[in-house]
Amino acid sequence: xxxxxxxxxxxxxxxxxxxxxxxxxxxxxxxxxxxxxxxxxxxxxxxxxxxxxxxxxxxxxxxxxxxxxxxxxxxxxxxxxxxxxxxxxxxxxxxxxxxxxxxxxxxxxxxxxxxxxxxxxxxxxxxxxxxxxxxxxxxxxxxxxxxxxxxxxxxxxxxxxxxxxxxxxxxxxxxxxxxxxxxxxxxxxxxxxxxxxxxxxxxxxxxxxxxxxxxxxxxxxxxxxxxxxxxxxxxxxxxxxxxxxxxxxxxxxxxxxxxxxxxxxxxxxxxxxxxxxxxxxxxxxxxxxxxxxxxxxxxxxxxxxxxxxxxxxxxxxxxxxxxxxxxxxxxxxxxxxxxxxxxxxxxxxxxxxxxxxxxxxxxxxxxxxxxxxxxxxxxxxxxxxxxxxxxxxxxxxxxxxxxxxxxxxxxxxxxxxxxxxxxxxxxxxxxxxxxxxxxxxxxxxxxxxxxxxxxxxxxxxxxxxxxxxxxxxxxxxxxxxxxxxxxxxxxxxxxxxxxxxxxxxxxxxxxxxxxxxxxxxxxxxxxxxxxxxxxxxxxxxxxxxxxxxxxxxxxxxxxxxxxxxxxxxxxxxxxxxxxxxxxxxxxxxxxxxxxxxxxxxxxxxxxxxxxxxxxxxxxxxxxxxxxxxxxxxxxxxxxxxxxxxxxxxxxxxxxxxxxxxxxxxxxxxxxxxxxxxxxxxxxxxxxxxxxxxxxxxxxxx
Length: 701
Description:
Number of strands: 50
Largest sheet: 4 strands, antiparallel
Number of helices: 0
Distance between the termini: 52 Å
Strand order of the largest sheet: 1-2-3-4
């Protein structure tokens, strides 16, 4: 890595090119207020090892704002730099300068008189004849200009689809025949155009990344591979159809191919496509305290014998107890226990876990008729006998609610949630983390509250390989706005580090290697729409490794991943709400490989289950889920896929046989862009005619 620090105010790199020797030419600007100048063009050349070979600057006069924005190189190593001069002046113009490999100026050209007003250049390319194509905008429309090797202007084009459209050409490349491909933005869409070497338009393609509500998409860079495929990079923003929600921008990469004189985008396919199957429901169990009750579950955990513990709340008349039930691996009930703090009030279990001794621990809340809830943590034996119970009342004596509970390898119990007024603020929620020893004695409590009197809630907690505690939740939330927060604590409760994430975080797990995985929602829109599932992976030091998102449907409603679990192979079980509008929607459970490849997806409603409140895995990697409405627990298993037919395209086949070899399932899936080999052996000697039909009987080839 190489850096440059301006002696004046600031500097920036805006374009880069690499010559045939591996030298890098970087173009940008240097803001030299220290010598009474504005932004100066700056071009720097580095050798392959990063050593500076030379640096050149250019100023159009005084305190102007000049920026070099793009770099192109010809086959002889000459360097073409394009950019803007007098950027904030009414006399803004574009400038093209050609330099030798040693950095000496060959010629300099500004845009020709009579062109559109205030032109700006953003991209340049050089064809096989050393002609230069420059692209940008002037008066809000595309500008394309072609110069010969000596800087003589050959032609210009200023295309626009309508007088009211606004457009800017931002990237350009050429093919060996001298055809020109330009990308940019027009009418808030990605625009891609092809011209011949004389500037005649051959075709135009527009593309919107999020069809149902994108606000602004732009193609900013373009490249062409040896096979002729085009790759466009840029950015896209998402928005609800009514325009009330804005999120982004998102990075994008689109692949286009030409066919029959037109251009089409093609879907990306993985080198190893995932097997997207639907798991089988092995069994399900439901329970109601009385026929009219709507008893609800809130947490599920599995012990080392694959016994299942489900915690929840019995929605009977006041007073309301919480419920803990134990099932064996086949779903047969073993026992059920109720808990009523102090003999009455509102009680509710919010989370359950199992310690290394296989004893279950439940965290919940109770209210004896006062102004708010208090936290209760109860440890049970394997037989359901209460071993200890601890009540915790926060400093504000207002509302204390747990969200998650876990147990470390020593049997210490850690509870995470929120406490109103924990840090002395007024009636807002603050993070709270409690640690109890194996006998229920409180070792320490820690709180955290963001500035501004907003709500902060710890929603997930996990234990690292060395007993460290990682907590995830949200920070500074007011209605639909807020950030995610990850905080790591040492075993004594001291803060190790804290990271803010531009997402609402709902759960956290830690891999055996110490990597931290979180899940939640990926954007923040004022109306609560346009949010996607997000799964992000961090190092133990809190550095982001990777992340991926999931959008239930492109309708820009809420998608909220609230549940995360890991199986023995490091695969991720993610569950939550999709396609929701203000809290009502469908639910899904997904299983992903560690790299984010979707392995399977399950819609509980298709099996008559309502929602997914929590999910975990047993020793056989079966997924156990619980519903959000009514007391329901179910176990899922992924059947082994039927092995596809032999993938050997050279194996012998019988006379008069046609065989297709290929496809991950043994047949071609058009959604995946799969390829196959067709084997044909005629019954008798002679010519062969092969016709391919689609499933509707239409001739394909």
